[in-house]
């Protein structure tokens, strides 16, 4: 059973020439853009490094904040056990990163743009990774059976992309589809798979594995983010409870992934492209999704999961009828397409017009005020399924139902007491003392950890107040409603 889950979001950064690095630092224009982006990412992390003496820190919310490969700022949510916790934690990461970017722009003397998308103009891709705890027994079989679901899931939760390349210009359902090379692999950057099989359980490896899904897009729409995670949770719960996942082995999963990505615009009479099964038959991707929906339908156990099922059903019905009216506030690929089409009708711009491409980027841009997403939510053009109060609180408050509760309290208490500490997903370590191991992600009340934290809190109460630095102030700003 998937007891805990989390998201890792890599963000794109951009800065104008001369804003965050020496002009002419790379000879080619693309190289100069990359150098500026890397310099902007380092500038964005300057207060983080001053706070934690590293570009890899855990926050008082129990979340991980770090610079990933390619200088992408990344926020990994704390472990969550409910969809509501995860949605708040993910939005908290957006808020924190946006305030960090705004502060970096002030220091650099020019704006630093923060983008929650998955590709850049040079053809590089960066990800939104999903993590689910699964039982070690049978995990490989479950992962293999989920490949058809993940290949066709972009019909529901893809973020959409205007793709301009030598083949022409077209609108894809998914940003990640063209950047995936294998179905299952232990690699992540050399050859991006749909599911990464590297065995890093971040817990008791005798009992559990971490199912690491890296094919998904970053979602701006809260309803789509909810559906993306909830559908996986429901399928894993159904499988753990003895249910059978559909047996629909694909002949060529990567080819199918790219075929499905090109299933729009359905308004011109084209539905989802049929894909080949390993037994020689073909199948409609919508039919694949209906089969998985049937397997998951009885597993819902919360209002959020029921709401996700409802959107899943309504979206598949829309694909059957090729009538998507009423879904444009809940699905990213559709919300963005409708936004672009309204602009094109007003201006006469072609799909590859630079103004359209700028509008597409604006859909994914975050700022300290929430960016275009907040305006769309306020205007009723995107459904607001995440309360601002809950998201603001999640900047500094860990989920109470997982070990993140202990990790976040430990970080806050150690900093308040002025003590040296190290921390990762599994261990809490104070100075040279033996580490406390938290092997169960659902262990939110470990006695050894509680004793360690209580001692730190007592020391903090007796000590002088530690001075706040820039990152403390940034977390406070991101946590204000």
Features:
Creatine Kinase, Chain A, domain 2, 15% strand, 2 domains, alpha+beta, 481 residues
Question: Would you kindly provide a brief summary of this structure?
Answer:
The chain has helices at 29-44, 46-52, 83-108, 139-152, 154-157, 222-240, 253-261, 285-296, 303-321, 332-347, 354-364, 371-378, 388-393, 404-417, 447-462, 470-478, and strands spanning 5-10, 12-14, 56-58, 64-68, 72-76, 113-115, 128-135, 161-165, 168-172, 182-185, 193-196, 208-213, 275-276, 282-283, 365-366, 421-423, 427-430, 436-437. It is α+β, with helices and mostly antiparallel strands.
Overview of this protein structure:
- This protein is of the alpha+beta class.
- It folds into two domains: 5-393, Creatine Kinase, Chain A, domain 2 (2-Layer Sandwich), CATH 3.30.590; 404-478, no CATH class.
- Helices cover 43% and strands 15% of the residues.
- The protein contains 16 helices and 18 strands.
- The chain has helices at residues 29-44, 46-52, 83-108, 139-152, 154-157, 222-240, 253-261, 285-296, 303-321, 332-347, 354-364, 371-378, 388-393, 404-417, 447-462, 470-478, and strands at 5-10, 12-14, 56-58, 64-68, 72-76, 113-115, 128-135, 161-165, 168-172, 182-185, 193-196, 208-213, 275-276, 282-283, 365-366, 421-423, 427-430, 436-437.
- It is globular, with a radius of gyration of 22 Å.
